[in-house]
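Researcher: I'd like a structural prediction for the single chain below. Treat it as a standalone chain; there are no partners to consider.
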Amino acid sequence: MKRARGIVAAGIGLTVMARLFDAVPLYVPGLAFLLIGIAAPLWTRLAARGAGVDRRLNIRRIEEDQEFEFELVVRCGRMPALSATVLDPLCADPFALGPRRRTHTHTATASFPRRGLRRLDPPVLLIRDPFDLARRVCAGTGAVHELLVLPRTEPIRVAGGAGAPASGAMSLQLASRAPRAAVAEVEIDGLRPYREGTSASRIHWAAMARGAGLLERRLRAESDSRPLVVLDARGAAVPEDLDAAVRAAASITLELARRGGCALLLPGERRASPLDGGVGPWTAAHARLAMVQSTPGTPPPFLAGVGVRDGPTFYVAARRLARIPAAADGVARAARVLVVPGQLPGRAASFEVAGCSGYELRARHGAPRAPAGRARAAAGA
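Model: Treating it as a single chain, here is the predicted structure.
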């Protein structure tokens, strides 16, 4: 509106000059400036009445770099806008609309290169005159969209390709050969109401004698033979390393779940979540992976309640460690695999996935051998 008022002031000035100095040629530009300065804001105001824009987005989850379509519905006002521009967070560049009298639907595509929760404000319709003297902003009437961008999963590539020796895929082969049957339940984990068909040896007769009703002992397995995937989000050098670690953890978890089941332990969680290849558990785990944030460089306390497991452990770190931290070293009795962004110098990776490399740690309390100085520098702790 400042430009329109300036044009009106210029028109008044020229008209006064023409009157004072009897300069007839100045009347033409003076009156023209007056007319344009008054008509531009009036036209844009009338064109903005009833005008607006809405976004139609029917998805709530999308993977990284996956394109999706959405629609922008532009409603015209009482008068056609001579120049209108749509501004939307999903569009990299605003797009202009010509003079229209009817509702217009524009279809566009977008994608997100990184995971996380995206809050998308409603689009905005900007109406202005051809000379850009007056502007009117018509905010969208829709609600704020929340879109969860999930980490993408990638295939696991065994080092050496098709001609690699069988030991190159040992870590995943061990996981697929893990016992499928549950280990004998021997530890008491409390009491629960009696279920029909439960063995009489589980009935808690003392509780029944006290009048507490028919209860049974709830037992838990002494150990777990399923593979365990642990994500350590500490101390990533750059955000890209954390994203690569999350993608690697998601890819390994999905592959192991398809092979027969696994468990996933994320930062901040006290208990690993089992996954058996079903859609529901994987969907929930995928959403939690999308929300993982970098944590301070302290020992991972979330391993305290895991206990000893018989299955292999895949330790996925966001920083380039040379060994598994001591807090996680005693979790697995079976094979242990360290997965880090990029590659560790002087070491041969067993497999690669999502920009990360996996290294099998065969020694019970050791790590892949390397020069001591380089190993200490890479470990960082």
